[in-house]
Design a protein that fits this description.
There is one protein chain. About 40% of the residues lie in helices and about 10% in strands. The chain contains 20 helices and eight strands. It has an eight-stranded mixed sheet, with helices on both faces. Helix 14 runs parallel beside helix 15. The two termini are about 105 Å apart.
Length: about 500
């Protein structure tokens, strides 16, 4: 009973809206009376009275005077709701002054209240309902079994029930159904109702995935108060880490670094050991320091005698055995000195006058050491005319020139650069990649010489690195990296980083 009452009220409101609409039209577009049973007075249209709900077939039978083609068969369930709703209101015939719900005098004596006259309705009213075009009433006013309901916005057609747009899933593109005003606010469609987007192709290449990984977090400081508080490293410590990483650059082939200055006492051997130790500590080994003096160098006096007193002469005598395919690093290491603090090995020069090293000897030793070591740091003698000195220059990737701010030391270096400048393009490229290592002993600095010659070396070479005076180096004993001052170790690491940068440049240029 409640559903019928609600359905009747809804129909009354719809009829009232239709009545107001007709009042503002010059010609009524429809003459449908009030759909409620009380809309027709009993005295005027007794045959059109809806029968009781217990006899639904009686409502479907029209009077004989009414044409069959103009009749429509209402829903039996809807008829039940109409019979039960008998409440008169302002739109019922009992309401005084209501002339719109009265049938015309020229019509048949028993018209069907649900039918429409085709002659009077050239166009279907979107607000009206045709009993012959819809099978059921409003879909929201019924509680029974759901049936397909006509679309109130669709055009009237012959027996073509349209689906209710509010009860059907959206199957079309939401973008095309939106009005221009709505598309202004939803240019991409209504959120949550867009068509599924195709899946984006994801690359699974190893290099791209590794590049997309987040960078590792910077390690806390290792020195000073920052290390106690577990803070980030300061500027100096961060620069030191960068230099260490640069010195540890992985080269694609064994590289050769030559230390050369014709003037004796310029610091060639200490510079060789400092550079080899800095590279060995940064790289974790794989570095050998070679005293390529043609006759009696002094590297054996500046290194620790750890496991052997063998020299380059002994190595040459065992060359046939060491060049076999099954030779190992341990076999070669038996003729070298391992420096624990610097993590590098040392090959000393001959100590007798009858064992002079020549060009062919240099080539054999260089091929053997390049087979087992990644970085070769070669110390040279004072004779630029010797064959092994020239072979070292030809095999070099980077040239390191040790000097002191003294007239004789700088003059010898300048003359060597001028001589190399006349040896061809390869020697000229070697000069441009040269690194100047300034290592002064106590009282060796001449300010006037430094003022005059520093700009010259800076313009000719790739970099100039100053190594501070260290008492451990000035003692002229075995060089132990753990005994150096922190500033000296820091300068040696900077020298190693500059050399590694120039090695990288040299490897990118075809020889």
């Amino acid at each position: 009973m409640t559903d019928s009452h609600n359905s009747g009220q809804h129909k009354d409101r719809e009829a009232a809206a239709a009545e107001v609409r007709r009042m503002w039209q010059p010609t009524p577009s429809w003459t449908q009376p009030d759909p409620s049973p009380a809309a027709t007075p009993p005295a005027q249209n007794p045959p059109a009275q809806s029968p009781p709900a217990q006899h639904p077939p009686a409502q479907q039978s029209p009077p004989a005077a009414t044409p069959r083609s103009s009749q429509a068969t209402p829903d039996p369930e809807e008829g039940e709701e109409v019979v039960e709703e008998q409440q008169p209101d302002a739109l019922s015939p009992d309401y005084p002054g209501d002339s719109w719900s009265q049938p015309a005098a020229a019509q048949a004596p028993t018209p069907d209240p649900w039918s429409k006259q085709p002659a009077q309705e050239p166009a279907a009213d979107p607000w009206s309902k045709s009993a012959g075009q819809e099978q059921t009433g409003e879909s929201w006013s019924r509680t029974g079994k759901p049936e397909p309901a006509a679309d109130p916005w669709a055009k009237s057609g012959a027996n073509e029930p349209a689906a209710d747009p509010w009860a059907q899933p959206v199957e079309q593109d939401q973008q095309s159904q939106l009005s221009p005003a709505a598309q202004h606010f939803f240019p991409q469609g209504v959120p949550g109702q867009q068509a599924p987007q195709p899946e984006r192709q994801v690359s699974y290449r190893a290099d791209e995935l590794l590049q997309a990984l987040p960078l590792p977090r910077e390690a806390p400081a290792e020195k000073g108060v920052r290390s106690v508080l577990r803070l980030r490293p300061g500027t100096a410590e961060r620069l030191e880490r960068i230099a260490r990483a640069t010195a540890a650059t992985a080269f694609r082939r064994p590289v050769t670094i030559t230390i050369a200055n014709p003037k004796g006492g310029s610091g060639k051997t200490p510079t060789t050991l400092l550079l080899a130790g800095a590279l060995g500590q940064a790289r974790g080994g794989g570095v050998v320091a070679w005293d390529n003096n043609e006759l009696r160098g002094n590297m054996h006096l500046r290194t620790h005698d750890t496991n052997s007193r063998s020299t380059v002469t002994d190595l040459l005598q065992a060359m046939q055995m060491l060049t076999q395919p099954d030779a190992r690093l341990g076999d070669v290491g038996a003729y070298l000195r391992h420096q624990v603090s610097g993590q590098y090995d040392v090959l000393t020069s001959a100590t007798t006058t009858y064992a002079q090293i020549e060009a062919k000897d240099f080539d054999q030793i260089h091929r053997l050491l390049s087979r087992f070591y990644k970085v070769l740091v070669i110390d040279t003698g004072n004779n630029e005319g010797s064959s092994n000195w020239r072979e070292a220059m030809k095999a070099s990737d980077v040239l390191v020139i040790p000097i002191k701010w003294k007239s004789l030391s700088c003059a010898a270096a300048v003359q060597m650069l001028e001589e190399l400048d006349h040896q061809g393009p390869d020697a000229q490229r070697l000069i441009r990649r040269a690194v100047i290592a300034v290592s002064n002993g106590p009282g060796d600095v001449n300010k006037e010489v430094e003022k005059q010659l520093r700009p010259y070396f800076e313009s000719r070479a790739a970099a100039v690195v100053d190594i501070p005076t260290d008492p451990h180096i000035a003692a002229e004993g075995p060089l132990d990296h753990s005994a150096l001052q922190p500033a000296t170790r820091r300068a040696a690491l900077e020298l190693a980083a500059k050399v590694a940068e120039q090695v990288t440049i040299a490897l990118n240029v075809p020889r």
